[in-house]
Amino acid sequence: MGLGGGRTMEKLPDEGSPIPLTTPAFDVAENHSHDKDAKRFPPPPEAYRLYKRRFTGVLGIFILNAVGGMGWPYFGPISNEMAQEFGITLDEVNWLGNMFALVYLPVAIAFPTLVSRYGVRRTCMIGSAFLLVSAWVRFAATPHSLSRNGAYTLLVVGQFLAAFSQPIFQIIGPVFSETWFNLRGRTTATMVLSIANPIGGAVGQLISPMVGNSRQSILVLGVIATVASPFVFLVGDAPPTPPTYAASRKKPTLSSLLRAVLGKEAPDADTWMTIRERIDFAILTLLFGVLVAAINTFSILSNQYLSPVGYSADISGFMGAALLLTGIVAAIITAPLFDRVFTHHLGLTTRILCPILAVAWLSLVWAVRPNNTGPLFVIMAIIGITSIIMLPVALELGCELSRNSDGSSSVLWFSGNLFSLIFVLVQGALRAGPNAKPPLNMKAALIFNAAFICVSVAFITVFRGKQARRERDEQEQVLHANLTEPESPIIPQA
């Protein structure tokens, strides 16, 4: 039932139908704050709308993001086999993954400009082209007739090209969900698109040790990329009518976000951030970067963590897949709840899950030992559930705090890949020597990983996470409802 004489429609809108609004009625003409807002912001469209083709766009980006995510951790479970077959060192194998983080950084910075200039659809086409070409450049490294240096060079170039596609499909998730979905589906859409990359990583870790030798694994990756590339044609640019107020606004630039974080943005700007929001965004950027780095590093170094204490490449792959797949199931269950039930609890969720996650990573320092398979799988499940739930939550919180989906997503993923590069390099350097017991063990690396995560998570004690973008969208729905509310007829007095 509507409040104060407002109208209520409970059936969700179908293709092209207006989104229902339930609001109190009041006299807009007397509300001077609304008059002021009308000067700062253009009036909303006659009705916000949803379109069924938003789901085909989600499908297209999901598949491309999943395949793009396979390339980074793909060689982790077969790192030892890669080193033997191609005559390279483990550090050189690690650089096939590091290449993604290295290229990711400038692409993440350029992403908002890319989307602003070419739109969502053409940006995805650029990413798809890089994905396809990179797969077959990698395959060109597989003939036995090539020299060691020639083969490794082609592998590096292939990874370099693939690294251009991954950030495009990974960062674009919150942008697409804000552009095409309303308040009751935005977090779920972000969840679906953000978990695509971990799903691809999990599938890649399962496939790479199972399809034969490392050269055959590279061929399989090329075939998968070729099949996935045409899905880019499912992605639309923007709907004719936006689904929310946030979607109707012109996309802010990355520079406006940086100005807002530094306190240099004008107070009357839509992207202006309070001191509390700036502190929260800084904490969120640190936490997101460190926790993404921990997952990425484990994906790349999983075999190097576990093989010195007696675990096979298959078991290493299964543990990495268990981490990601349990988290994916948890995210699928929880994301709709954040859209429809716990709509204002993203900050609270972050404060609860981060300490649990830190304890789980800390426990690995003692759990990685021989004949401890069961407890390791349990720890992997806990890390996966908490981490993957946090992934869409953090991305949405970034948009909420900044009101800048392009810029916040770019900054968060930039942080994740910067820390990933640091973690992989540092932990590779902390590998024990061949005379250690056991040889080449990663005990010191696990200690570094746990210590860095625990120190970073300590900042969660002062994190709040106010959902400012959602509040603004809800206010605009109220304003729009009252602007379109028909006036009551005037009954003449007798």
UniProtKB/TrEMBL annotation:
One of its GO terms (cellular component) is membrane. The chain crosses the membrane at residues 55-75, 95-115, 122-139, 151-176, 188-211, 217-235, 281-306, 318-338, 350-368, 374-399, 411-430, 442-463. InterPro entries: FLVCR1-2_SLC49-like (IPR049680), MFS (IPR011701), MFS_trans_sf (IPR036259). It holds the Pfam family MFS_1. Keywords: Membrane, Transmembrane, Transmembrane helix. Residues 1-25 are annotated as: Disordered. One of its GO terms (molecular function) is transmembrane transporter activity. Coiled coil: none annotated. The keyword Transcription regulation does not apply. It is a multi-pass membrane protein. It is found in: Membrane. This is Major facilitator superfamily (MFS) profile domain-containing protein. The lineage of its organism: Eukaryota, Fungi, Dikarya, Basidiomycota, Agaricomycotina.
